[in-house]
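Why 16S rRNA (Guanine(966)-N(2))-methyltransferase RsmD? Reviewers of the renewal asked for a concrete example.
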Amino acid sequence: MSQTRNKVRIIGGDYRRRLLPFPEAEGLRPTPDRVRETLFNWLGQDLYGKSCLDLFAGSGALGFEAASRSARRVVMVEKSRKVYESLQANRQSLQAGALDVVAGDALLYLKNSRETFDVIFLDPPYDADLLPRALPLALERLSEEGVLYVEARQWPDELPEGLTVLRRDKAGMVHYGLLIRQPG
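Here is what the prediction returned.
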C-alpha cells in the first residue's frame, strides 16, 4: 500500500509539502496536483487579504491550499461527519487560524449565508448532480470582483445568467475553470 494513499500534499505557500490525511468516503477525490497548480497560477500564488469558500470540501485540498497562500479567511463546508472531523484535525495540526470548518450541507450553507467571498471553490461529488443547483446560489455569495472555481466530470452546458468563463481547461477526466460575473 502506498504511503500517500488518502493523503493530499499542499503544493504552495506556508504549508507547502505538508501531507494531510483524509478518510475513505464515497465520492471523495482530491483535486489533482496538476489541476491545483494551474488553478493557483490563474488565481495568483498569493491570496493575501482574500476570503475563500470551499464548498463540498472533501479532502480540503483547495481550502488548505488557499489558507497556505495567506488568504484572510477560508470557510470549508463539509456534510460528512467523518470527513468534517478529519478537516478539523488537519486544521489544528497546521494551526491554520484563518480557517473555519463548517459541518453541514453546502447548498443550505449558500442559501443561509449572507457573507460574500472573493474566491469560491465549487467541486461537488461528480455523481450527485449538484453543480446546476449550486452555481446560481454561489453567484449570490460571490463578491463583485470575485472568482468562482468549478470542477466537474463534464463542463456545464449552460451557466446561470450573470456568470461568464474567465479561463477553462481539462486534465484527464477533470474539467475545470474560473467563472466571473458578467460585465455590465
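The longest helix spans residues 81-94. This is the kind of structural detail the renewal will allow us to pursue systematically.
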